[in-house]
Amino acid sequence: MAKPRPAKRTLDSYTIKGSNKIIKPGDCVLMRPPESSKLPYVARVESIEAGARGSNVKVRVRWYYRPEESIGGRRQFHGAKEVFLSDHYDIQSADTIEGKCFVHSFKNYTKLDAVGSDDYFCRFEYKSATGSFIPDRIAVFCKCEMPYNPDDLMIQCEGCSDWYHPACIDMTVEEAKKLEHFFCQGCSSQNEKKTENSSASRESESKAEQSEPVIVCRLNPKGSNPKGGEGECHRCTYVLSRGLYRAVFQFQVGVNVQMTVCILEVTWGSCQALYRACSISYPSAVEDRRELPICVYIYWGLCDVLVRFSFWYLNL
Fold this sequence. Notes:
The protein is α+β, with helices and mostly antiparallel strands. It has helices spanning 106-110, 173-178, 185-211, 259-281, 294-314, and strands spanning 9-11, 14-15, 22-23, 28-31, 41-50, 58-65, 84-93, 97-105, 119-122, 125-127, 132-134, 155-156, 163-164, 234-241, 244-251. The chain is elongated, with a radius of gyration of 45 Å.
C-alpha cells in the first residue's frame, strides 16, 4: 500500500536565506536565473507553501517580463527598469530567491526622488501566448509620437503644454537643461503673429492719436482752466474718436447769480459746444457758409445768435 503524501502547509511569510529580509504573498522578488550572466528574474509572490515538517519551501510566482523578453522586443520608449506583468505563473524553490524588490506603478515611479537598484515600474500587462499588451493604447508625446520614457529628458511647451525630446527639436540635452522658458515651433509662430498684430494695432492707435485735431478753446487758449478771474471761468474740451466728434463742456460759475442766469450759462455752453463741433467738421464753414448742409447751417446760425446774446447778457 502506497504511503500518503504529507500535507503541505501554507506559510504567511518566508525569510530569505542568507539575509534577514522577510517576504509575504504580494511582495516582489528577484530570482536567480539559470545562467549567471543574465539579469535576475522579477516575479510577484502569489503564495508560499512548505512540506509537513517546514522544509522544501516552494513559492508560486507570477512572472514579470523585461521588454527584451517579450515577442516585440525592447523599443525606444521602454525604460531601463520597466517590466510587464505577464499571465505566466510558475512554482519555484524558495532557495532561488535572491532578494526583495519593488515594482511601482508608472505614476509612482516618476515621483521617486531617487531610483534604487531594486526599483522597477510596470504600466502594461503582457499576454505571453499572443504577445499582446493591456492597455493596447497609451498617450504619446513629442513630434515622434512616442510614449513617455522616464529615463529620457523631455521639456514642456508653455503654450500647448505638450512634451518634446530635445533631439526632436534640434537641441542638445545640455541646452535643454539651461532653458528657463520654452515654446514649441507652433506656439512660437502663433506668438509672433499675435505680437505683429499687437504692434500693428498699437501703431495704428498711435497714428490715430497723432491725427486727432488739437482744438484751442477761444475762451481759454492755454487749454487749462484759469485759477483766477471772474470772466474766465469756463473750459471747453473736444475729443475726436472713431470718426465721431464728441464735445464735452465743463462749466464753472465763479460768482453767485440768479437761477435764470445759471440756465442761460448752460445754454450758452451747449451752444458753444455745437458751434465748435460744426467748425471742426466743416473748417471752411467759418469763412463760407454756403458749404454747410442746411441742417448744420441752421444749428450754426442758432449757436451764433445764442452765443452773441449770452455775451451781451453776461457782459463776458
